[in-house]
Fold this protein.
Amino acid sequence: MSTTSTVYEAKAKLSAFINQVQRTREPVVLTRYGKPVAKLIPCDEQGDSEDEALAQLHAAAKKSGIAYTFEQLTAPIPVEEWGSLAVPAGRSRKKAKR
């Protein structure tokens, strides 16, 4: 059975949670406003390779109905969709030094 903790509590107890996961091999689920947002899980003894991790993420995304191509994820966002993040021409987001 996995342990559940808030993100706020995890900030203070991260080292203890990592030790717990390593010792018990059971995940720790982190929640924000009562909803799960992350999970600390044990690594296997050999260590997870990047390819294995990507394959697991791909499988989980596919199972959840999420299907994006690399091109979709790396394509520039059209200026019309920037909303409040858009910077008017000739201006910069950097604040002037005083």
